[in-house]
Write a structure and sequence with these properties.
about 90 residues; mainly beta; seven-stranded antiparallel β-sheet; 7 strands; about 10% helix; about 40% strand
Length: about 90
């Protein structure tokens, strides 16, 4: 599987598991993910105040995030949580 934001490839996803509505996996990031580092750090930090006005509106639009599955099908997701240890969690839209 592959993670995308709009038409930007952000990384390969593997070792997938499902827990309720959440999908958990590992991501091998592409260099394109670097610009989202602060954004993802704030999303996963439960103690930080996430200020939406600090980020690009497109980044906050769930319809811009998706996964290409192993059969090359595009599947919409809500904004994923990408952790520093390269764990990724998401829910399907």
């Amino acid at each position: 599987m592959k993670l995308y934001f709009l038409n930007e490839f952000l990384g390969d996803i593997r070792n997938i598991s499902v827990e309720g509505m959440w999908i958990n996996a590992e991501i091998t990031p592409s260099k394109n993910i670097d610009k989202f580092s602060d954004f993802f750090a704030k999303i996963v930090d439960e103690e930080a105040d996430f200020e939406e006005t600090n980020y690009n509106e497109e980044w906050l639009d769930d319809s811009n995030w998706y996964i290409i599955d192993n059969e090359n099908r595009k599947k919409g997701i809500y904004i994923p949580a990408v952790y520093p240890d390269r764990e990724i969690n998401w829910r399907w839209r």
